[in-house]
Input
Amino acid sequence: MFELRGVSKSYGPAVALHPIDLRIDTGQTTVLIGPSGCGKSTLLRLMTGLLRPTTGEVLFRGYQITPENLLSLRRQMGYVIQEGGLFDHLTAGRNVSLMARYLGEPQDQIRARLRELAELVRLPVELLDRYPVELSGGQRQRVSLMRALILDPAVLLLDEPMGALDPMVRHDLQTDLKQIFRELDKTVVLVTHDIGEAGFLGDTLILLRDGRIVQQANLPELVNHPADEFVSRFINAQRSPVDLLRVPT
Amino acid sequence: MMRWRVRTWSPVGGMLLLLACGAGCSRRSHVTVGSKVFTESVILGQTACDLARSTGADVDYRRQLGGTRLVWSALLSGQVDLYPEYTGTLSNEIFAGQNVLGEAQIRRALSEKGIEMTRPLGFSDTYAIGMREELAKKLNINTISDLRNHPDLRFGFSNEFLDRGDGWPALRTAYGLSPTKVTGLDHDLAYRALANGNIDVTDLYSTDAEIEYYHLRVLTDDRQHFPEYQAVFVYRADLRQRAPEVVDAIKRLEGRITQSQMIKMNADAKVRKIPEDRVASQFLSQTFDLVNETAASGFWDRLGRRTWEHLQLVGVSLLAAILAGIPLGVVAAAFPRVGQIILGSVAAIYTIPSLALLVFMLPLLGIGWTPAVFALFLYSLLPIVRNTHAGLRGIATPIRDSAAALGLPAFARLMRVELPLASPSILAGIQTSAVLNVGTATLGALIGAGGYGQPILTGIRLNSPELILEGAIPAAILALAVQGLAEIVGWVAIPRGLRLKRET
Output
């Protein structure tokens, strides 16, 4: 789906991402994970074309992303940002259908698609008439996901979509997302700093640190064969309540 | 009511009229009358207007345009067709240093510039020097020469007299005066300063109403220093071809206004607070049995006419500022470098005092409606440009990115996402502009654009609080109304989702 060749990103002297080569496989859920400032969001934004690489090239479905083809390629990607990035002046439904209306798709077709997507993301359809400020954080993320899916994109790019949600809402949404990804059978690239979320949703995990890929593997391999000390520290950094209750021996 | 129609037609209608009237279309002759900024000139200008109207001409009156130089240059450039002038001013100021003396020589000098002059109207409004009667008596001062013995007297001259060649500098030389204290002030304020004892000696006009009112002594010009200031009308030579009947009508005034009639008219206007148009029409009805309908206009007619003039000034300039300001703000937000230049420029315009801006506009756009609207337009730009820029720059990066990531082209993003999100800020800018504009538009009267500024300006000149309030109160009410209207527009125009957000 994506192929990155020698891609790097610098802001003046500050290097956000060192040159990397990377392939994102079709049909897989790939998770970009790492501590804050590791370059995972930069990597995702390079894939969407929101950032232009300092060196190297980004290929999407075999095409290099250029300013000329950027708009048409973006319509084949669905992008969800932390806190949704919904437009406050439009109702949820209009947020979702903005692009379809811009492209002049027939009204009844858009309406049918809205119902279908609402069902998919498990959002009560009547909430589509509300404005973003009238929705909860979890509902907003579901609307945002609908908006990303409206044109039936080839890939879903999610930038910490659950970063701002409280744990219970996040748990429910994670469960639903896993289900949705399975139903959609789409390529998904997800950015998170939560190893639990990454392991739960991802087929492949790409662990980054200081703008470099440290290890690319599935969860069992990451846990059992960490590439270095950092990887095992990162994996075990999260406290689990169950561990806390375990009687020290 | 006639005036109303004239004003309404002037800017837009005038152009339509030109378009509609091709060759062979008979047209009412159009005349623009000007006047200087003092009462006598305004009254004389008004009599000329009434007489011109009596011939059926379409008349525009640019009253109290400014000082001699300004009205003279307006005549030369054709922005006014005629205005009242004095032979002394022509000799000593306009043709200063060219030794143009006497009626025949003035006439010749004028014709070289394409200007003609009526015969004298009958009275002379010459410069004179006056003091409070009691002080003059105490010090035994009867002639200007007597002033030499009292260098400690405080001299306060009108600014124009202080500056012009035939004024104070010439007088000082002619009489060898060397007072210790000379200040410049407004001619009308000078009388009050004299009456209050703030100054002791001032310049007068020999037809001034205040000479009697304030019990002043006019000092004898014992060296015959001051030239004759016979009142005349000067007009463009092409007016005689364009509207001979108007020139004939004005010439009816030749030799018809006596010194005492002029003093009475000045006193009617300045002391008895009778509006100049009524003073003029009273004189004309007594002298020529001429009845003028406009002078009879009541308070509500005046208010209606001025409101309409004011709304035109505000409406057109504000609309233009919105149409230009929003795109400028968009460009400024999209291109930060250019944005710095745009924001810097509109802010710089804003810092020019409004009075100065209007005066700068004169040589470029002349007088009247167009330059006033243009100046107001420039003033209204800043709040709109700045708020559009701020509103667009204030959109959070995730929102921007989301719009871009959808694959919407830049223009569609602007129209469908960014401008609606910036709309509360933009509307606030328009509201600020509109309210400021209503206030600033009162200055339009200074360059003959009418509106609520007209009675304010006249009120200042006549020291009439009632007249000032007649302009100031409606202007304040209009500003409040505009504020209220903007609230309603905001309620309708700001998307509901954003209003909800503001409430939470």
Remarks:
- Residues 1-26 of chain B have pLDDT under 50 and may be disordered.
- Strands of chain B lie at 30-36, 58-66, 82-86, 115-117, 127-132, 154-158, 181-185, 201-205, 216-219, 231-236.
- Chain B touches chain A at residues 398-399, 401-409, 412, 416-417, 420-421, 423, 495-498, 500-501, 504 (CB under 8 Å).
- The longest strand of chain B covers residues 58-66.
